[in-house]
Amino acid sequence: MTDQALITRLDNRLDQLVNIDMGERGVEHLFDAARELQGGSLVGAAADALMAVPRDGTVILTTGSVSRAWITPQLGENDGPSGAAAIARALVLGRNTTCIMMCEDTLLPAIQAVMVASGLFPVTLEQAHIARADKSLATIVMLPYPTEDAAGEAAATEMLDDLKPDLLFSTERVGRNDKGIYHSMRGIDYGMGRARIDHLFDKALERGIPVVAVGDGGNEIGMGKVADHVKAHVPYGDQCQCGCGGGIGAVTSCDVLVTAACSNWGCTAIAAAMAVRAQDARLLHTPKREALLLDTMVANGLINSTHGLVDDSVDGFERDSHIAIAELCRTIVSRALQ
Ligand SMILES: [Zn+2]
């Protein structure tokens, strides 16, 4: 049996672990700001929100970043997909959730491959509902989201009306700034070929649907919550290089923000906190699965965006760092998972 005081201590340790600013991006400032705003562990609040999704409910997830869009829209980066896969898997196993993953149609094949490697079989929405009813198969529904401004805004209302999600989850998904421009961490406009899914999150917030978001840079969905701190502490947070007159900070906010030095680490920590709440070790994102997902991302051409290279480093951190984070998250929660 786990008591609340122990869970709180473990949540705080997970927060600390994944917010060590190894990439020198200023994430510690965003972490402090989000902790103060939310009044406690970020990872714990995210796990609480995800475990509060009604059993047999529906969650829309997004991740994926078109990288070097000026060369090809087929190219995605490898921070985001493995973390999103860890959360989708935990939701399916822990809450029997129908998980709907949305991204650009150009990135669907690679991200789908990562979902499969995490244990989820891609099906249509109708097929997912059959699987949910008899619990015979862990599934994922993959859907494209429009990449033009007007179509992206229009799709937001339609998708929420049709799918009636209980929660929206985003990790490492770039959102527009207050001038409507989507920026890289270097302050460049790289909105071309990019899904306008931040509009879906804005609309969900308007309707009071819970939104959980993970980010590591300040330009991602959810960072609107700490916009002033992105401006003050992140390179190009105040002034980009594209000439739009704004900074790289995303305007879209969230209910629960999780910062991390690498977004995938934030998701690994959330999955660990979900495992504690469910008292179910299957929800953990294990080192073995992280290794498999890193290999899968390489095999499907997702790039290490820091080095512009297809390899198993993520955000410039070597492969072993990501496997180690998964091991340390498991170690932190192990005393509450007997
Ligand atoms: Zn700009």
Summarize the structure.
With 338 residues, the chain is of the alpha/beta class.
Write the layout of secondary structure elements.
Blueprint: H1 4-18, H2 27-38, H3 42-51, E1 58-62, H4 81-95, E2 98-103, H5 108-117, E3 121-122, H6 125-134, E4 139-144, H7 149-163, E5 167-171, H8 198-207, E6 211-215, H9 227-233, E7 256-259, H10 263-278, H11 287-299, H12 319-334
Parallel strand pairs: 1-2, 1-5, 2-4, 3-4, 5-6, 6-7
The chain binds zinc ion (ZN).
Mean pLDDT over the residues? 96
Radius of gyration: 18 Å
Beta content comes to 5-15%
**Structural class determined from secondary elements:** alpha/beta
Query: What count of structural domains?
Result: 1
CATH superfamily: TON_0340
The CATH topology label is: inorganic pyrophosphatase (n-terminal core)
Q: How would you sum up the major sheet? A: 7 strands, parallel
